[in-house]
Amino acid sequence: MNATPENSQQTDNGIYELIASQFSWAPLSVLYQFLESLDTQEYRSMLTALIEKANLNDKVNQQVQAWEQERVNPGRTRLVVKLINHTDLDFEIGEHNLQLNADEQHLTPIFPWDIQALKFDLAYTRRLGSRNKDMFKHFIVFGDKEFGFRFDFGLRVNTSFGVISPTLTPVRTHTLTSIGTSPIQCTTRITRTASEEPYGFTVELTLS
């Protein structure tokens, strides 16, 4: 039985997805070696795109690490976000409740197959002896009514009073929710936390 054009296209897409899943985060040296072993221009184009994405991923990781190590101004805590878009969709910036001044980073659209790093220096004030307090609770909406998602994030510091000194417990929240009529897969995880005040942290968001 001969394959129909539709079935053939599905088979090709399956091969592409398999290659991408195996090599998307491979070391660049491995990708270059594999690229040189290929004879067809079709697969060379795919591997070239994967190499470009690996280069972008390395660049974003370097930016994330630099922001994590950078000193934060007094009265501020830092949230670093790494966003990975494994889809062919783009997402415009929608509603949010952030208050960004002229000196802070402005939000930019997310492009297909994009990887971005964002940082937010948010207010952190806690008076000595104060009890539980929400330091910040914010949200950002990306996309439109068909394909969209919402990122909610926050930091709460709980205080318990002991005999000698109070104990502070940071509670970090991070949720990523598909909100469009056509669902997309969204995952979020914390990749770094500071053990001392002002309890900055890094979150990785993945769309697929």
List the helices and strands and how they pair.
Blueprint: H1 5-23, H2 28-36, H3 41-69, E1 76-85, E2 93-96, E3 115-123, E4 133-143, E5 148-161, E6 166-178, E7 186-193, E8 201-207
Parallel strand pairs: 1-8
Antiparallel strand pairs: 1-3, 2-4, 4-5, 5-6, 7-8
Helix pairs in contact: 2-3
Order of strands across the biggest sheet? 3-1-8-7
Sequence of secondary-structure elements: HHHEEEEEEEE
Number of helices: 3
Q: What is the count of structural domains?
A: 2
| CATH topology (level 3) name of the largest domain | Mutm (Fpg) Protein, Chain: A, domain 2
Task: Give a quick account of the main beta sheet: strands, pairing sense, barrel closure.
Answer: 4 strands, mixed
Parts with pLDDT < 50 across at least 5 consecutive residues: 1-13
The percentage of residues in β strands lies in 35-45%
Radius of gyration, whole Å: 21 Å
Shape descriptor reads elongated
Span of the ends, CA to CA: 34 Å
How would you describe the overall organization of this protein?
This protein has helices at 5-23, 28-36, 41-69; strands at 76-85, 93-96, 115-123, 133-143, 148-161, 166-178, 186-193, 201-207. The protein has 208 residues and is an alpha+beta fold. It has two domains: 5-54; 71-207, Mutm (Fpg) Protein, Chain: A, domain 2 (Sandwich), CATH 2.60.270. A four-stranded mixed sheet has the order 3-1-8-7, with helices on one face. Strand 7 and strand 8 (201-207) form a beta hairpin. Helix 2 runs antiparallel to helix 3 (41-69). The longest helix has 29 residues, at 41-69. The protein starts with a helix and ends with a strand.
